[in-house]
User: Fold these one by one.
Assistant:
Number 1:
Amino acid sequence: MTVPVIIAVDGAAGSGKSTLARGLARALRVAYINTGLMYRALASASIASGVDADDAERLVDLARGLRFSVRGDDPPELQVEGYGSAHLTTPEVESRVSLVSRHQGVRTVMRDRQRVLGTDGAVMEGRDIATVVFPDAPLKLFLEADPERRAGRRAGERGTSEDAVRTALHQRDARDARTNPLEPAPGAVVIDTTDLSIEQTLDAAIEAARRVWPSETP
């Protein structure tokens, strides 16, 4: 029986998860699901609705009201109805996303949605995909990188100063660690992207996938 192509990609912000996961999904012809967008959409919704980041009950209601789908091609990607990139990458959202995502009720709602989204196969990235969402994923990847390199990458993505990003990442790492310790899941393939190019990182991931799905990988 063919093992479904479900790949869990975990790692810290700026470690290269999004670039790697999108490229891997394209290579394997499956959906790419960035779960961070789901929590960013919730952060944006809470700001727009005036819901306090400590109000777990109302945040759960907001999370249940979000609409997610997988659309497009090369690869198909997660879409959040009513939320484009301009809504999800503001400094306000960046500073709030860890606060709204720390509530267990919120994470339970998102976990259930993520499992449905990945039913037909996906490369799914986040911070707890291999440990919580798909603990039985046939392939688990964990990306790590030097904090300075992570800050430089994120600054380039956001078009902001590296010093500001470095501080924001440090604060976010500390908040996120209280919810999900950033450690590789048992059996995960660890890829240190500090000194790897995008192509080298993708090659390492494809090689890991080839060992699980030899007939599916390029």
Note: Strands lie at 6-11, 31-34, 68-71, 77-80, 122-126, 139-144, 189-192.
Number 2:
Amino acid sequence: MEYKDYYKIMGISREATQDEIKKAYRKLARKYHPDVSEASDAEERFKELGEAYEVLKDPEKRKAYDQLGSDWKAGQEFRPPPGWQAHTGGGGFEGFGGAGEADFSDFFEDLFGGGFSRGGRSRTYQREFRSDGQDRHARILIDVRDSYTGATRSLQMQLPEMSRDGRVINRQRVLNVKIPKGIRPGQQIRLKEQGGAAMGSGTAGDLYLEVEFQPDDFFHVEGKDVYLKLPVAPWEAALGGKVNVPLPAGDIELTIPPNSASGRKLRVRKKGLPGKEPGDLIVVLNVVFPPANDEKARKLYGQMRDTIHFDPRTGMRRS
């Protein structure tokens, strides 16, 4: 009987953690599963992998296996020590969680004993292959209004699926995405089991959508605060007064102080993105002048020039 190096079969070191063993198995199971692999020795590799994983995933079996020592080489003639079955508690197994349906090797049975199926003694173990799908990540663009009010948006994506012949193919799917009220840029929306395809009885991965906001002529978001570039007329900025400000979740009335200039910032508490602790709305004034495109407008601008003694470049002069 030949010695089998289960660590070498799984491509891991003898000091590998249980988590590393699990990850190595999942990776190789996908690679050599007979339903998806094109390798000529896929079935044999898959059986060896399932056997190795059956031993190394179980702390007691692994401990017993490690007691054989690391001096054995794969393919070397091997016989278990006398009384080994009693030492390991070898006996029957109802099955194991490896991959595929195959026999254990003589090496495994001499170490850990034969198995028993419901119909009597058998070397064939019914094993259900389970490989969970990988999580996927993508981005979704939403409007500022969506965060203020919440929304549902349809999203078309190319997502992997398992075909009937066991191959992973990309299919276009339409997903209805619920946009939570108060979501911020950089946060993620999780769509359960909408990610990478699973194999066998595994569970599909999740799809994580990172939120970004559509560019907007008037609004932009920083964290939970919303900045609004608000156009105001020259007389509103100069004389001050109350103006109506349209927001995604309803209009508000804003008081503009007299003698305000472009770039002046006015903070409105708790009118930013909603949430347990709402953000603020920062209104940035943008003074917009009416065009002098008719005789009446030109006359008014001329009166202002002749009546108001104002030089906007005074601060540029040096004494």
Note: Residues 18-32 form the longest helix (15 residues).
